[in-house]
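Below is how a single chain appears once it has passed through the pipeline. First comes the sequence as given, then the structure the pipeline wrote out for it. We keep one example in the README because the format questions we get most often are answered faster by looking than by reading.
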Amino acid sequence: MTTRGDAPIALEGFTVAPMTFHDVARDVYRGGTGPGVIVMHEIPGITPEVARFARLVKDAGFTVFMPSLFGTPGRPMTTSYAALEILKTCVSREFRVFAAGSTSPVVSWLRALCAAAHAELGGPGVGAIGMCMTGNFALALMVDPSMMAPVLSQPSLPVGLTRRAKSGLHLSAEDLAIVKRRAKEGVPLLALRFTNDPLCPKERFERLRSELGSGVETIEIDSSPRNPHHIPPSAHSVVTLDLVDEAGHPTRIALDRVLSFFRERLAPPA
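Resulting structure:
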């Protein structure tokens, strides 16, 4: 990994400092000005592609908080690196990757980060995006009243092949009740996936729509064989690794919707 000083080149433009909640310290990369957005990286960590996305959020007028939850910040994605980090999270006490009806303990730390960002920056609240292993965390963050713009990108928990796993939201019954109440009160959710992605099955989005109704907006990008945009069937990471940054491409349209969603929900009224 190429670095300049102590910071990876991929993370230039961000400062890093530990933040401590519930007696747990984590490095948080920060950059930008404006309302706060929590960027929760995917497996295997804060890759250059995740950093690129965070920079787009920052440049769109937001203060990005990007906690390092696992992996080595700035290290590029490789198959072996991803496999190692998946193994680590599977045995970690903070990530309950197979749990369909409970919330991972790390979410408590993330909720505290949301509350701290809102207390510092003010405004109507904060936004968040989770990806892959952290995708469902954005849903769980709706329990905190500061969360006003949650985005789930290819939410992949719980892991499993049963119908219960495929439709699972990785959320406790108590948390789901709060999420449903907040959705009815006017806090919407945005969710993204590729249609052929086995890690984020269609049953999960069907469950989101069943539970939240008009409170969830879903974007499902065609990745079936012979799709018109030649998106590979293996596509998984909507706004990072599989993003095609070309006008009119479905992934770019999805990215633009994420940024507009944050503006609609977090920009102070004129």
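The helical segments are 48-59, 79-91, 106-121, 137-140, 163-166, 173-184, 202-212, 250-266.

See the next section for the split statistics.
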